[in-house]
Design goal:
The chain has 318 residues and is of the alpha/beta class. Helix content is 46%, strand content 12%. The protein has one domain: Alpha-Beta Barrel (TIM Barrel). The radius of gyration is 19 Å and the shape is globular. The N and C termini lie far apart (39 Å).
């Protein structure tokens, strides 16, 4: 650990900054985890894109379709390959509380910087604020590592800004990725922003969040490596410029990204987003496993792959 439990909030506020990605998991032709491909992607995001951190194997990483041992292996690969080159935030959430605790302890043991945990699922009974709070507190009380809370609709509800503020008071809760409405994100930032890092993960909102709303870090989606490449790094460019106070030049770089955003959106298939992201990034030089995804996800057709490749070639990224 790079910090004591009592120092977690202060450490995160000082170090959880800039642009972070959210990893995808490439698969081999036998649908096993492509370990060398995953290592390559981590190195690429450090060396070519200079990302500040990686949210490892969360929902975009298809963690829902992996065993606990596979998930731990991906954490290990990320920590080993990054070797301090960027921060590693390991997604350790699981419907079974003890599984979540086990993976959180493992992430701490192997040297991950933080863990990410999503709001828990309530089966057959209504969600309660107290149940959610106790879920996070149970894990936090038993580990030292900083916990980054993911607030999302995957489990049928969003945590209110007031509940998030209560959770943010837990000693080693260090941040919130808030996928809510703009008013809720703003209120969460007002209630929690002095205590923890509050991130709206949308790249399209990042310029305004960075320059006007005081957001420290954009954590984390595939956008940082879908909209950039070894050849062209406009997200990094406008982020660096904005952080230096060169707002006009940062705005110009932000606007130059619009054709790239449009190209990606044009080929996005809502029911196949994981596969689209994988194949898109493969066209940029990352390991994408030819867009392979595990069932129940659906794979791309050859026509969809051709469309993605053609779209990438219009962006100036290759």
């Amino acid at each position: 650990m790079k910090y004591r439990k009592s120092e977690a909030k202060k450490y995160a506020k000082a170090n959880m900054r800039g642009v972070w990605g959210g990893s995808l998991t490439p698969f081999t032709p036998k649908y096993e985890i492509d370990e060398e491909g995953f290592r390559h992607n981590i190195r690429y995001c450090i060396d070519a894109l200079q990302l500040g951190g990686m949210y490892v194997n969360a929902l975009q990483g298809e963690s829902l379709y992996q065993t606990i041992s596979e998930r731990k292996r991906v954490f290990k690969l990320a920590v080993e390959e990054s070797n301090g080159g960027m921060a590693i935030l390991a997604y350790t959430s699981d419907p079974a509380l003890e599984n979540a605790l086990d993976m959180t302890r493992y992430a701490e043991e192997i040297g991950a910087d933080y863990v990410g945990i999503v709001n828990p699922k309530f089966y057959l009974v209504p969600m309660t604020d107290e149940g959610v709070f106790q879920y996070f507190k149970y894990i936090a009380d038993r580990v030292n590592i900083g916990i980054f809370v993911l607030n999302q609709m995957e489990h049928g509800y969003l945590m209110s800004p007031e509940l998030l503020s209560r959770i943010a008071d837990i000693e080693n809760v260090v941040g919130i990725k808030n996928i809510g409405s703009p008013p809720d994100i703003l209120r969460s930032r007002i209630l929690c922003g002095d205590k923890v890092v509050v991130s709206d993960s949308s790249e399209s909102n990042w310029f305004m969040n960075l320059t006007v709303k005081g957001q420290e870090a954009m954590i984390a989606d595939p956008d940082p490596y879908c909209l950039q490449s070894r050849k062209l790094r406009l997200v990094k460019e406008y982020t660096d410029l904005a952080m230096k106070g060169e707002i006009t030049r940062a705005w110009e770089a932000y606007k130059r990204l619009e054709p790239i955003r449009r190209a990606l959106n044009m080929v996005m298939v809502r029911t196949k987003s994981h596969a689209v992201y994988k194949y898109w990034t493969q066209c940029l030089g990352m390991a994408g496993g030819d867009g392979r995804v595990r069932v129940p996800h659906i794979e791309l057709t050859e026509a969809e792959k051709r469309a993605i490749k053609a779209a990438v070639e219009t962006t100036g990224l290759v």
